[in-house]
């Protein structure tokens, strides 16, 4: 179990952000930490938030490293296609003025 100490101000910020932050994934992170601040067991937090224990541990590590600001970071995996050059070329071609001819 990871031990995290929360100040009253941090608990209030987590409480506010869990409903008001614009991205739902960040709201879930805030909710998990808010529940942790109320001494719920990890198993209960996972059940209430719908995240795995590994994901919950990563939320806790992020919070320990950078506080609430670190929880606001979203790092989605975005694989790059090998067709990037061709896609860019196609998009440029779609934006040519009417009657323009590339020769």
Description:
This protein is mainly α and 103 residues long. Helices cover 63% and strands 0% of the residues. Helix 2 crosses helix 4. The radius of gyration is 21 Å and the shape is globular. The termini are far apart.
- The average pLDDT score comes to 85
> Structural class of the secondary elements?
mainly alpha
The proportion of strand residues reads under 5%
The coarse silhouette is globular
Q: Tell me the span between the first and last alpha carbons.
A: 67 Å
The largest pleated sheet is described as:
none
What string gives the helices and strands in order? Answer: HHHHH
Query: With helices defined by DSSP (H or I, 4 residues minimum), what is the helix count?
Result: 5
Q: Tell me how many strands there are.
A: 0
Low-confidence sequence ranges:
none
Task: Classify the helix fraction into a percent range.
Answer: 55-70%
Radius of gyration: 21 Å
Write a concise synopsis of the structure shown.
The protein is mainly alpha-helical and 103 residues long.
Write the topology of this structure.
Elements: H1 8-20, H2 24-37, H3 42-49, H4 53-71, H5 84-94
Helix pairs in contact: 1-2, 2-3, 2-4
Features:
103 residues, mainly alpha, 0% strand
């Amino acid at each position: 179990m990871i031990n995290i100490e929360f100040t009253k101000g941090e608990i209030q910020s987590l409480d506010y952000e869990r409903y008001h932050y614009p991205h739902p994934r960040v709201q879930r992170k805030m909710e998990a930490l808010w529940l942790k601040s109320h001494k719920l067991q990890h198993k209960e937090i996972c059940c209430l938030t719908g995240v795995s224990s590994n994901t919950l541990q990563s939320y806790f590590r992020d919070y320990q490293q950078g506080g609430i600001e670190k929880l606001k970071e979203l790092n989605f995996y975005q694989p790059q296609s090998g067709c990037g050059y061709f896609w860019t070329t196609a998009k440029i071609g779609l934006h040519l003025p009417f009657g323009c001819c590339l020769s």
